[in-house]
Amino acid sequence: MDNKLSKAVLVGIAGSNNAFSLSIYNLKAFAYNDPEIRDQWDISIIQHPLINVNRRDIEVLPLIDRIVNAKPDLIGFSCYMWNVNVFDEIAQVLRKRIPKAKIIWGGSEMSSDYLMQGKFDKLEMDFCVSGEGEVTFQEFLRNQAFGVPDLSNIPGLAYRQSTSEPFKINPKREALEILHDVPSPFLTGVVDDEVLLRPKVEANIETQRGCNLRCSYCTYHKDMDKITYSSLERVVSEVVYLVNKGVKRVRFVDANFSSDLNYSKEILRAFIQKRFELRLMFELIPGFIDEELATLFEEFSNLHPWNDITLGVGVQSIKLETNKAMRRGIKIEKFDQTFELIKKHNLFAKIDLIIGLPGENLVDIEASLEYMMETVRFGQGHLLCFHVLRGLPGTELLEIAQKSKMTFSSEHEPHVFVESPDLPRKDMLKCLRRTAVVFRLTNHRGWAGREFISERKSEDVNIREAFFNARQRLNLTNIELVDLLVEALMEHLKERNSWFVQPDFPFAETWWWNLSAFEVRNEWILECLENLNPQHSLA
Questions:
Q1: What are 282's strand-pairing partners?
Q2: From CA 203, how far away is CA 191, in angstroms rounded?
């Protein structure tokens, strides 16, 4: 083999502290399935945990040094909304430090629509991959090594000679017919042991691509007219591999794990037969669960004391008209039925709501918050997870947003919703602070039997009891009491100039996920709730 292999470094920045980007391992596994590419390319992967905005000054420069020290001929970035700004910063530095290295971007952020609109022209990139990347990247590597296929004949690729030129954009890439065509990055040994041996690592597994729904704000279904599945044998073998490496947490990154009920049941039966000791996370659409599947989930959870299952259930809004407008016409009754099964079978729920959907106003969002606070009033430990609406590249939402006169901004974060005629900025800020308080209350120790963020278990529910005692004493709704806590926090956090009190509440989601527990202690919450009196409620 030629000792002077071309060197490619693929860089991923995960969406959480314990996760990793599966996409770049898929790219490497698929590329190395071609023996000629193995003979020409040395592909390595740098896998970095989430870089929060408050840690960029600390973590970005060491990451850049690590890339430079690898002496790459080609650098690839796997881009999502949580890392695209960081990659932009990194690419600018890399261009100066290793100017001869070529830079290729890919991932869900890299929409062909945005390419055609020139929105990526100023980014430091020579090549860009849109859509499913495995085949495109493999053909690109062959072009770089052998000159064929010609760049112009690689679907899904955009390219240019210099950053002063616009991109030449090829036609879209057709989706893979069979997900099984991508070799398993685990079973081929592509996923680095260094990553799998990290403390508290959560390994990602993909059993399918595509989705039952066509939600206008989402990219899961983009360019895919059907769902394609991995084989049962491969899924089980991948989990066996992970368990043998000592992995204790696995997240299934499918849009809707139970899109085919029989298939999802087969997977669970196999897991039970293998008696895996794992904590599992699945996403499923309300209604895509029955008594049998819920029973299998519970049976797996009962195999070992460590085991549990969290089901991510996307509600988005309790307003049917809103969901229908987003091509997600799921009635709240479907969620209620799903949640009853979750409670009955001692499972954990991660309930997702989106703040800022088209046509929703302050009252609509308040209704969703009120409903969900009542929903999780009783239960062992359910996460109320809020997301600010984002106008993602290539989604139908951007067309709807234009008609609805919605404003998005990237001043702080990419694509984040700012305001609309239905939800003026002052109302949006009120929603952000309300959701921040609800998140702080419901997802940390003192509300339920498990603190979702740290996974610590406890019988302590003193915050939940104090909250509902105060609500009853003051004769308030849940959100009226939340508003009183917001008012108290504006004073309490003023001295430290918390993001929470800043006029535009920047990085709201980062605050409630990463900072709220540090800045708002349980003791303060309990004292505040105890000291509220009827005069406060009338203020």
A1: 311
A2: 10
Phi and psi at 522, nearest 5°, equal -55, -40
Residue range 16-40: mean pLDDT, rounded: 95
Residue 60 has, within 13 A of its CA and on its CB side, a CA count of: 18
266 Cβ contact partners less than 8 Å away, ≥ 6 residues apart = 232
* Residue whose entry in the numeric block shows the structure tokens 């609509």: 364
Q: How far is CA 468 from CA 156, 355, 409, 447, in A?
A: 54, 24, 37, 11
Question: How many Cα atoms within 13 Å fall on the side-chain side of residue 239?
Answer: 25
The pLDDT tens digits of the residues spanning 283-321 come to: 999 999 999 999 999 999 999 999 999 999 999 999 999
What is the rounded distance in angstroms from the CA atom of residue 448 to the CA atom of residue 381?
A: 5
**Which pLDDT score, from 0 to 100, does residue 268 have?**
98
Residue count (the chain): 539
- ∠21-38-176 over CA atoms, to 5°? 55
Rounded Cα distance between 356 and 365, Å, is 8
Asked whether the beta carbons of 462 and 526 are under 8 A apart, the reply is yes
| Matching residue, tokens 């969901």 | 323
**What burial letters (b/e) apply to 333-361, b meaning 16+ CB within 10 Å?**
ebbeebbebbbebebbbbbbbbbbbbbbe
Query: Tokens 């996403």 sit at which residue?
Result: 283
Residues 6+ apart with CB under 8 A from 221: 210, 211, 213, 214, 215, 255
What is the residue whose two structure tokens read 């949640």?
A: 339
CA–CA distance from 276 to each of 39, 126, 250, 409 (Å)?
38, 45, 11, 45
Amino acid code (one letter) for 495: E
* pTM of the complete model: 0.92
CA dist., res. 379 & res. 376, Å (int): 6
Residue 539, pLDDT above cutoff 50: no
DSSP alpha helix (H) spans, 192-331: 193-196, 232-244, 261-274, 291-301, 320-325
Q: 124-135, pLDDT tens digit by residue?
A: 999 999 989 999
CA distance 157 to 159: 7
Q: Is 379 left (phi over 0), alpha (psi -120 to 50) or beta?
A: left
Q: What would the pLDDT profile of 179-206 be if each residue is shown by its tens digit? A: 878 899 999 999 999 999 999 999 999 9
Cβ-proximal residues to 488 (8 Å cutoff; 6+ apart), any chain: 528
Which residue in the block uniquely carries the two structure tokens 């993001």? Answer: 499
- SS3 category, 13: strand
